[in-house]
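Let's see one such:

===
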Amino acid sequence: MKKKIFIALVAAICLMGCTSGKTEEESPVHIDSETLSASSEETQEDAKPSEEGIAQTTEEKPQEEATLENNSENDNGQGTTSQSETGTLAYHEASLEKKWETDAGEVACTVKLAYPIFEGTSTAEEMMNAFYEEWASDKLEAYENDPESIVKSALQLKNDPEYADFPASEEVFMLESVTIRPEVISVYQSFYSYSGGAHGMPGRENHMFDPETGKEITLENLTGMSSQELNDKMRSMFLELVENDEENKFFPEAADTLAQKDNFTSNFYLNKEGVVFYMQPYEIAPYAAGFTEIVVPYAQLGIA
């Protein structure tokens, strides 16, 4: 009987030793596609690495008045490291957050800025990194000093006792994608501004760079077409979209708005299929319709 008990104890100890040392291994994120998406994804707390070797790591971070991290943040205050690469070009997402408080110590406005940091040492990558460092610095300076900024408006409102219970304002920039082609590197960001009311307003920002020099280029540089040619082409395409509308999605005056518009080249970004031109919410359709988009294949614009 004692011998059987002894054997059982030894077996139990061996079993515990075999199972206690296992750990999950993390893998870097690799996305081998023309368009590299760096947008954050919500994950469950018990999420495990996928079969393709894509892993996400999270760690608790203290809230600070102003922080700069080389990661993105989700709604739970946790950071998710994101890195994408194609060929020799790699980048990760930097996220800067700052809060402004009222005289009473209540948060009046929060700003979050997400932008890419390229990890190579080429001239182009260093130039693009310098561009986005200056971009973030200029944004913060404008929030601080521009009397018309969302921050100044929020502080003025929240410091008024009559509006002390008014919800805090926020402006959030998100890094949506980095599109890499032989003749261009395009960085597409979206943003959302809320300063009260039923909803905030979405927006978009896109910058294109020469892959050799890292200098910013325009759509006219990329296509070899003039601003007039591009505007005429896009006006015609949007007018066709409105005229063929059978669901009454657009405002009755949408065609007149398009006929007078002369800055179609201000609202675009690049994706895998081509150049995406868009109209802002409320411009030719209600807010609920979102952005009205037309994707023009690269070949139609003379882009290889």
Residues 123-145 form the longest helix (23 residues). The first strand starts at residue 35 and ends at 37. DSSP finds six helices and 15 strands in the chain. The chain has a mean pLDDT of 79.
